[in-house]
Amino acid sequence: MVITTLGLELPSDPRWVDIAKMNLGDILIDHAFCEQKAASSCISLIVQYPEREKLVEVLTPVVAEEWGHFQRVLKELRKRNIPLGKPRKDEYVNQLQQILRKPGDRNEQLMEKLLLNALIEARSAERFKLLSESLTDENLKKFYRELMISEAGHYRNFIELAEEYVPKDRVRKRWKELLEAEAEIMKTLEVRADRFH
Fold first, then answer.
1. How far is the C-alpha of 119 from the C-alpha of 182, rounded, in Å?
2. Hey, which end of the chain has fewer CB within 10 Å, N or C?
3. Closest CA to 7 of 184, 185, 183, 191
4. Going by C-beta distance under 8 Å and a sequence separation of 6 or more, which residues neighbour residue 13?
5. Which H/E stretch holds residue 23?
6. In which residue ranges of the chain is pLDDT below 50?
7. Pick from 43, 94, 44, 98: nearest CA to 65
8. Model confidence pTM above 0.85
9. pLDDT over 90 for what percent of the chain?
């Protein structure tokens, strides 16, 4: 049995980290946009569900953390004289969004959005772990180790918030379905040098 980060059903293709190391500039650019989108996603949840006090309380500091990560990745890009450029299409997230259930009451819709965010954080944490173990740049290794710990915390935030608003057994059942669907998506995605996911 393969042990994966945060219960993911399928580990990343082992080629990804080798390709990432050889194309670090492209990976850093895509990573910067991922952090930007993570902050935006949390802001969007706060705007859509302002009456959920626990959600607002938990996600407000996550917004600040994700934006801080974005700034730190920008700093790494500047050190290497790499411009940020334009965002790339995120095939991974686009495919995840296709498996979300659209109908349902407000709580069910919230659960879907929270679990989507949890999945993205879990996969990001796994990739940060791979980079922290494989890079030769000691500063970047330390940076990605810190981010792995942070994203794992965010993953827990999203799961716990889902369980705050929807019965735990329903959340766990849906989480298992999404993990299985995410594994199928990972099998179909091309391993690319310019994508973080």
1. 8
2. N
3. 183
4. 186, 191
5. none
6. 1-4
7. 43
8. yes
9. 81
What pLDDT does residue 5 have?
58
Query: Which two structure tokens, joined as six digits, stand for 79?
Result: 């050190």
Tell me: the pLDDT tens digits for 109-127?
999 999 999 999 999 999 9
Q: Give the model's pLDDT for residue 2.
A: 37
- Distance separating alpha carbons of residues 6 and 57, to the nearest angstrom: 24
**105 near 166, Cβ under 8 Å?**
no
Give the C-alpha distances (Å, rounded to integers) separating 74 from 77, 94, 151: 5, 24, 18
What is the chain's length? Answer: 197
Please give the structure tokens belonging to residue 13.
């293709």
The two tokens of residue 127 are 């990739």
Nearest to 88 by CA among 32, 39, 40: 32
Q: What secondary structure does DSSP assign to 3-14, as a single string?
A: --GGG-SSPPPT
As a whole number of angstroms, the distance between CA 38 and CA 67 comes to 8
Would you state the structure tokens that stand for residue 10, as one six-digit string?
């399928």
Backbone CA torsion sign across 30, 27, 90, 70: negative
Give, in order, the Cα–Cα distances in Å from 181 to each of 100, 108, 120, 172: 10, 18, 13, 14
| pLDDT tens figures, 57-89 | 999 999 999 999 999 999 999 999 999 988 888
Terminal C-alpha separation, the chain: 23
